[in-house]
Every structure is written in structure tokens, then in C-alpha cells.
Write a structure and sequence with these properties.
Order of helices and strands: EHHHEEEHEHEE
Number of strands: 7
Shape: globular
Largest sheet: 7 strands, mixed
Distance between the termini: 35 Å
Helix content: 25-40%
Length: 173
């Protein structure tokens, strides 16, 4: 192994803590706000495409916990380490659900984002979405790779600094 290679510690090395994913609740606002406060500015910008503030505005966190759709949190040691949600896109020609995810830095690159956004997508499709929308910064290589790897039939449309991916319900797998 070369010295620049990063190796993730096994779960047992982190105190044996377990990761759980569940539906978000009002009681999660404080822990979610804490996670967002600890996430680097670049990650916040990749998710929100704008300034969020430190701590984030309570209204933002509340909308993340209770969107016009559904939300999930990932917890480790009773602290939120990930968030995913879907919300209806208003005015869309067909029922469309927008997906969003943000994962704490220490939890990235382990499949948690894929797991959480997949849960949100399945729920949105069961709620009647005919297609899913994922808005990604053209600079967000990790999420671009995630979308392309998991939904290779998604259509991509450039919109300034964003790439809008549309995944038809029939192509979700």
C-alpha cells in the first residue's frame, strides 16, 4: 500500500457503532442541524447550490425533515450522519420527484448515499412519481459518478452550472 492510499477503519475500530437508516422525524432537526454545521462549505454548496449558514436556518432544516414528499436520516451513535429526501416538482408535465442527499464527510465513499437516495427514489415511485429528477453541480464528480453508475439510462441536460438528470420510473432499477 502506498502512503497516499486511504483505508477506512472497520466498524469495530470505531467503537462497534452501527449505522441505521430510518424515516426522518421532527426530533431529528437538532442532530441534522449539527451535521450540516460540521459539513465543509464545499459539500454544502454541492448539495444546496448556495450559502446555508452556520448554523443553518431552522426553516431549512425543518423543510429537510418534512419536505413535500419524504425524508430519511442515517444515524450512527444517535447522531445524524446522512440525509436523503424527495419532493414533488411543482408544474412538471408528469409527476416528478426531485431527489437530494448529503452525507457527513466521515461516512462518504461507503455506499450510504446510494443506499439512502435509492430508498427515497423507491418511496417516490411508490407515491406515484413517473420520473425522478437529480440536480447535480457539474463540479460534483462523486454524485455525477453515482448517478451515471446506478442509472445509466438517465437523460442529462445541462443548465448552467447544473446537470439535470431525469430517470424514468420504468428505468429505475
Amino acid at each position: 500500500m502506498n502512503q497516499t492510499q486511504v483505508v477506512e477503519p472497520p466498524v469495530a475500530a470505531r467503537g462497534g457503532s452501527r449505522l441505521s437508516v430510518r424515516r426522518a422525524e421532527d426530533a431529528d432537526t437538532q442532530s441534522l442541524s449539527k451535521m450540516l454545521t460540521e459539513v465543509p462549505d464545499f459539500s454544502l454548496y454541492m448539495r444546496f447550490q448556495g450559502a446555508v449558514g452556520r448554523p443553518p436556518q431552522p426553516e431549512l432544516v425543518q423543510r429537510m425533515v418534512c419536505p413535500d414528499g419524504a425524508a430519511w436520516v442515517a444515524e450512527r451513535d444517535r447522531e445524524v450522519v446522512g440525509h436523503a429526501m424527495w419532493a414533488w416538482v411543482k408544474g412538471a408535465a408528469v409527476p416528478t420527484a426531485e431527489l437530494a442527499v448529503i452525507i457527513a464527510e466521515a461516512e462518504q465513499r461507503r455506499g450510504l448515499g446510494v443506499r439512502m437516495v435509492g430508498e427515497a427514489a423507491r418511496h417516490a415511485l411508490a407515491a406515484g412519481a413517473a420520473q425522478l429528477l437529480v440536480l447535480v453541480s457539474a463540479m460534483n464528480d462523486r454524485v455525477l459518478r453515482m448517478v451515471r453508475a446506478n442509472w445509466p439510462t438517465a437523460t442529462a441536460e445541462r443548465d448552467g452550472a447544473l446537470i439535470n438528470f431525469t430517470i424514468r420510473a420504468a428505468d429505475f432499477g
